[in-house]
Amino acid sequence: MRIDVITIFPGYLAPLREALLGRAIAAGLVDLDVHDLRDWTHDVHQAVDDAPYGGGPGMVMRPQVWGEALDAVLARDARTPRIVVPTPAGRPFTQATAQEWAGAERLLFACGRYEGIDQRVVDDARGRGLPVDEVSIGDYVLVGGEAAVLVMVEAVVRLLPGVLGNPASAEQDSFSDGLLEGPAYTRPETWRGLAVPEVLRSGNHAAIARWRRDRALERTAQRRPDLLAALPERALDKADRAF
Ligand SMILES: Nc1ccccc1-c1cnco1
Question: Do residue 146 and residue 181 come from a single domain?
Answer without folding.
Answer: no
